[in-house]
Write a structure and sequence with these properties.
Elements: E1 2-15, E2 18-23, E3 26-32, H1 39-51, E4 53-57, E5 60-63, H2 64-67, E6 71-75, H3 97-113, E7 118-120, E8 128-142
Parallel strand pairs: 3-6, 6-7
Antiparallel strand pairs: 1-2, 1-3, 1-8, 4-5
Length: about 150
């Protein structure tokens, strides 16, 4: 399981002209799922996102968990696109919707269980994601067994 996580001043997701998820300062997490990912991977990814110490604080670096900041989670199957050959990405590394959707939902549920305020996109929809990156600060997180 992969996530591209950005520290943001604000972020939103629009579907069909309607804002379906929006946060102020916090984290934007674009989440991709591969075939071998599990519920345990989803919980671990949620923990890493929530506890990622990338916010400044008077006493050092702080996390979204420390500061009570929200997370916007957006499914992003293209994180498993393989561009090593040719000009057209291969999507074989991305889990199909029936496998991926429950695991993205599990990341959201695990974040909420941890006390995070979570906004989301709409799985499988054509989404317009807007963000104001703070820093800029963006990281790639991976959990589970990478697919070779």
């Amino acid at each position: 399981m992969r996530a591209v996580v950005s520290r943001v001043a604000s972020a939103s997701v629009t579907v069909g002209g309607e804002v379906v998820g929006e946060i102020g300062a916090g984290l934007l997490a674009l989440v991709g799922v591969t075939h071998t990912d599990t519920d345990a991977d989803a919980r671990e990814l949620a923990r890493k996102v929530h506890e990622l110490r990338i916010f400044p604080g008077d006493d050092g670096e702080r996390s979204a968990a420390d500061l009570g900041l929200p997370v916007l989670v957006v499914s992003q199957f293209t994180l498993y696109g393989d561009t090593r050959k040719g000009r057209r990405p291969s999507w074989v590394g991305a889990a199909p919707g029936p496998v991926a959707e429950p695991l993205v939902d599990a990341v959201v549920a695990a974040l909420r269980e941890r006390g995070a305020e979570v906004a989301t996109g709409v799985f499988g929809a054509s989404m317009q994601v807007a963000s104001v990156n703070d820093g800029p600060f963006t990281l790639l997180l991976e959990v589970g067994t990478p697919r070779v």
